[in-house]
């Protein structure tokens, strides 16, 4: 279990510095992501299931999908171990959480979103580490 805990901290370390698309704050500062919202389970030899639950700042936040996208992109780039990634909105914190959960866990929709130059630019700004 210690290994899974270390992995969870590693994951949290990567996502806590992602910036909010509309504010200068990080997701950690806004408590959109918390250490407790990251779960890692070993699912195979050296492969892990990473589950992230995040809480949008407001219940009807249109940015929730975007934040989910930022989480996914940053982890795809930065996670040093093999993983499956599931990202969810914390239950009861968003008016359309089911739709958003579907969207951010659908590879094709994620890929399509990243082909949109405007969206991609926002994501890049959010996931790039501050100098």
Automatic annotation (TrEMBL):
Keyword NAD among record annotations: no
Keyword Ribosomal protein appears in the UniProt entry: no
Keywords: Chromosome partition
One of the GO BP terms on file: protein maturation
Family, as annotated: Belongs to the MIP18 family.
Self-association state and partner proteins as the record states: Monomer and homodimer. Component of the CIA complex. Interacts with CIAO1. Interacts with IREB2. Interacts with APAF1.
Protein's name according to its UniProt entry: Cytosolic iron-sulfur assembly component 2A
Gene: Fam96a
